[in-house]
Amino acid sequence: MIITLAIMALGAVVLGAALGYASIKFKVEGDPVVEKIEAILPQTQCGQCGYPGCKPYAEAISAGEADINQCPPGGMDGVRKLADLLGREVKPLDAEEKPKQVAIIIEDTCIGCTLCIQACPVDAIVGAAKQMHTVIEPLCTGCELCVKPCPVECIVMQPITENLDNWKWKYPVIEIKRAA
Amino acid sequence: MLPRLFSFKGGVKPQTHKTPSVQEPIGLAPLPARLYVPLHQSIGGVPNPRVEVGERVLKGQVIGGADGWLSAAAHASTSGTVIAIEDHLAAHPSGLPTLTVVIEADGSDEWIARTAVDHRSLPPERVREMLRDAGVVGLGGAVFPSHAKLAAAAGVPVEELVINGAECEPYMSCDDVLMRERSDEIVRGIAIFRDLLDARRVLIGIEDNKPAAVAAMQAAVQAQGEDYQVVAVPTRYPAGGAKQLIRVLTGKEVPASKRSTELGVQCFNVGTVHSAYRALAFGEPVISRIVTLTGNLERPRNWEVRLGTPLHELLALGKPKDDTDRYLMGGPMMGFALPGLDAPVVKATNCVIAASPAMFPPSPPEMPCIRCGACAEACPHELQPFELYWFARARNFGKTQEYHIFDCIECGCCSYVCPSHIPLVQYFRFAKSEIWSRERDKKAAEAAKARFELRNAREEREQAEKAARLAKAAAARAAEKKSRPSAAEPAPVEALAAAASPALAADSVDAALVTPPAKSADQPSSAQPALDAEAVKKATIVAAMERARSQRAAAPPRNTEQLSPEQKRQLAAVDARRAALQAEEVAPVAASGASGETAKSGEQQGTAE
Predict the structure, then answer these.
(1) Among the four residues A54, A90, A172, B580, which has the most C-beta atoms within 10 Å?
(2) Interchain proximity A43–B441, CB inside 8 Å
């Protein structure tokens, strides 16, 4: 009886020591879940979720402070992926889903105040004080953060139209007329 | 001696339907009134417009300059006036517009100055550049810029140069007639490519259903005394696929991750070779191509068509029959339904087929996949189309990549044999473009994240720098405040002494004029080391003023030299009075200090008068 207990106790001590050692030796730096969540987020850095950027939102989701349906640029697709990753229920998006957009500066109206340059989270606007500004379209994430600061309302958001570069083959559908 | 031939797995043998279009020789399509030349006709960078609206262009003039290395120039197909550079319907399954130069032909068809060059007299880099600027691209349908394929892989000599005249697509016969009629030029063109690649062997592969083309090519090779091998390969779709033809002729199987040059093989279409020859030996850029016009037409035939010719004008030459309901570009296996006949003929337009419901009956409704494996047997790339289909249908794109969807050449063999009439290739195209689009989005997201992080880091750094600057300034101010009580006190004393010294000496004007400069000059040096910079400055100013005064006194007044004794006496009296007055004034001034200065200078001015 005592021998049995001693063996069990010894086993507990040895295994506990091994686990304790492993938890120090193989400590994971950072939160891998946050990185996975962030990889799903669209990185527009728009703040529409209420957090100052995609990473803070990913951290909030991971900490259980934020829900998974607060990212309008990610759309329902993003919500589905997050639900998949985190094993949560798919929820309808907390805002209206918009098509992908790009900011356009109406250059005739621009007064060169540099406010939009300061607002752009990804440095996609070029220009200098009292010089016309312009958006580098391929870098624009369509976050709309530059629209509000403009004192002369010369920034408009344009949805990205389909062109030969981004055109996609459609999912094959059976035409009802033919199938009937 | 017949070379040993290999074979590829799979493939199908559809009806070829090539005979109707080869009854007549190549016809020269008439010049249309307007040409719509799209700038982007090849894989790679979109050429930059080189002409302006209203400009007159000549036949063969560059209208779009190659953008970067992987790109090919676009040219005007006739002389005329550029009336617009605008978006126009593209010959593309999407039906979307593309930037197009619209040229109104003037009918004179005037060439630019053409210069023939011998490729052997030029360095290979220059020849490649010339081919790029002549717009030479793969005319088999893939439109990949040819100059980019004309360099051997590092460390691998090119063993075989394969010239592709297989033309395996049904209905299509543009390469067939080209080989029959222009075999001489093709063989000369092969020499250019052989020299550029330094290929040891040249193999010309032609499907054995084109005996006339085989004979013509053999005759041309013999006539020019070349050692190229013209090989008739068994007719089986898709023998004209680059990888399949390389396999059949050389036995080499090009793996997915490698280019054929890494195995010492390169492959070109006969049409490409011909256009390259015209570009170098005649200085004629690619402004036309042979197009097979066939299908449900009164007059199927091959035409040499200027690039940019609207398709409806081309089709009018063939007289489509009444029951024609759609038009296909490319062959029936790999081609697509044209979105509209306003689209122009481009470098990729090898064949236009008028289709009727009788010719291509609508496919029966799609039935469930029964996993019979017929598609896997037909696949020339030894893929498993049924597996790919499952995953593409379920949008499980990661799995499609695991099953090598990007090895699929979309030849259509699987769809052709499918007993359930599943449009397999459509699913694969959908999956491929969806994967590409996601890759693009992912790359954009990563770039945005990197830029965002960079910006945040920069802002943090700037803030830190600003804070450091402010802290430094504050510290400096604090230090100044601390040091002021000790440093500032001697300063007023010093200034006072310097200012007061002339006033004190005012009893004797001479003494006052001569001594102060000496005094104030040595005062800073003899002063305590704790002397403030400000005090030194004040002292220097005072000293300078004294010096100026003494100089003014040393110079005698000019208007007093020739005075009468009467006037001298009057002056002396005035001076005496003033001196008496000042002596009275100076006593209180000297007591009050620095203010004596002003009185002093007032007196000086008075003397000067």
Answers:
(1) A54
(2) no
Give the neighbor-by-neighbor strand order of the sheet with B201-207. Answer: B229-233, B201-207, B160-164, B265-269
Q: What share of chain A is helix, strand, coil (3-state, %, to 5)?
A: 35, 10, 55
| Domain final position from B424, B444, B474 | B474
* Shortest CA gap B40–chain A (Å): 10
Write down the pLDDT at residue B300.
95
Sign of the dihedral defined by the CA atoms of residues B320, B321, B326, B332, in that order: negative
Instruction: Give the H or E element holding residue A17.
Output: helix A2-25
pLDDT tens-place string over residues B250-277: 999 988 878 888 999 999 999 999 999 9
Question: Which candidate from A45, A166, A178 shows the least CB-CB separation from B362?
Answer: A178
Q: What is the CATH number of the domain that holds B251?
A: 3.40.50.11540
Query: ipTM of this predicted complex?
Result: 0.82
Q: Are strands B97-105 and B80-89 parallel, antiparallel or unpaired?
A: antiparallel
Structure confidence at residue B505 (pLDDT): 43
Going by pLDDT thresholds of 50, 70 and 90, the confidence category of residue B113 is very high
Q: Is residue B596 in a domain?
A: yes
Instruction: Tell if the CB–CB gap between B96 and A174 is shorter than 8 Å.
Output: no
Q: Is A177 on the interface with B (CB under 8 A)?
A: no
**In terms of Cα–Cα distance, which of A113, A103, A112, A117 is closest to A155?**
A103
Largest Cα–Cα separation, chain A: 92
Nearest-CA residue of chain B relative to A178? B365
- With contact defined as beta carbons under 8 Å apart, do A53 and A38 qualify? no
CA dist., res. A87 & res. B52, Å (int):
58
The string of DSSP letters for B14-75 reads -----GGGGSS--EEPPPPSEEEEES--SSSSPPEE---TT-EE-BT-EEEE--SSS---EE
B608: pLDDT strictly greater than 80: no
Which pLDDT belongs to residue B586? 63
pTM given for the model: 0.77
Q: Please report whether residue B304 resides in a domain.
A: no
Apex CA B60: angle with CA B59 and CA B65, to 5°? Answer: 130
Residues B439 and B510 in one domain: no
CA end-to-end distance (rounded Å), chain B: 128
| Whole-number pLDDT of residue A127 | 92
Residue B449 shares a structural domain with residue B504:
no
Which fold, A101-159?
Answer: Alpha-Beta Plaits (3.30.70)
More confident residue, B83 or B605: B83
Cα B365 from Cα A105, distance rounded (Å):
50
For residues A142 and A100, give the distance between their C-alpha atoms in angstroms, rounded to a whole number. Answer: 7
**CATH number 1.10.15.40 is the correct assignment for the domain at A32-86:** yes
